[in-house]
Amino acid sequence: MKKLTPIAAAVMLAGSGMAAHAQNSSSQTQSGSGNTIAIDQAATATANSAYQYQSGNNNYSSVSQVGTSETNAINLTQVGDSNNAYGYQSGETSSTASARSEGDYNTVRINQYNGTDNLTAINQLGDGNGVYTTQGSSTEAEVEVSQIGNSNNVSTSQYSQTESTISVEQEGNGNSGYVNQSNGSYNQVTITQSGDSNGANVYQYNGSGNAATIEQDGNYQNASIYQRGSANSASVEQNGTGNSVYQSEYRYMYSSNNANNQSYTQNGSYNRATTYISGSYNQLAVNQAGYRNTSEVYMQGYSNDIALTQNGSYNYASAYTYGTSRADIDIAQNGSSHRAYVTSYGYNNKATISQTGYNHYASIYQNGSNNVASITQTSGSSNNSYSISQYGSGNSTSITQ
Q1: 44 domain residue, yes or no
Q2: Is 6 strand, coil or helix?
Q3: Strands 142-150 and 361-369
């Protein structure tokens, strides 16, 4: 068993760093409780490494690497409970900071700044774990987090990044994932959750070409995506019970490159999808299969495309477009007790509602010119109702019940 105090560790590193531009290496192993390790590596050398292994309770581990160097590595491993691990890298290229926790009540914090092609990799197996990472002013950086257990939490941020990725995988119950990407372009976020009582939140703003993907398989899950910029895409897929989707996008009106895409797929029950988009050339597709699903879409922009499909019972679908736009809205519901509303302002709009089942209600309101509205309700034709109002010139109406 080897125990190092911070002073002893500093002495070791001081001796290993006497030769300029040499490879600094540090390795510590602790078994017990109440131990502390603090390592600082600051040099222009390449291939610096710091390895720390702790087995026990109430341990503290910290590694800092600062300098204009490359291919540095931080490896923190903790097996036990009430452990805390901290990693810091700045001004580095092609460097890695990794941490692994097996046990309970562990916390991992890793920060990487002003680098290129750096990687943060964290793996936690247990309960009560927490992950907090930050990457700033970097290019082609990666964050990979994997949690297997319960009551886990992930909070990761990237700012002023380009072509960077964040991947979060959570398997268990009571997990929470929060991702924040700001002032960057062509970044990607993927959150995958398998279990129950999970929550996923993605924030991407002041950037272009960003992509957010949330996949949830379980119960009582929630997905929220906020995007601000242009040419961004969002995708949410949920399979389970009690899922909810909230997606909000803000775009500068009538910008030339606001070609954004959104896609939601929910397979289960008690699902709800809410979307707000302000911009132009946006597309939305929502597919819900189950019962008691609810979907609301509000779009304000130009040349938007909306498609809603619900297969089940107790479904509700509503779509809005305000301002000058050429929105194309398509709502199809297959089941019972459905309601569908379409409201569109502008010109050259098109709305189509098709409901198959019983006790349906459909309403289309369009205010402008060159509008086309069509309502089709079949399969028994019981308790169905329709309402179409179009103001302007060149409107066309088609109704089949």
Answers
A1: no
A2: helix
A3: unpaired
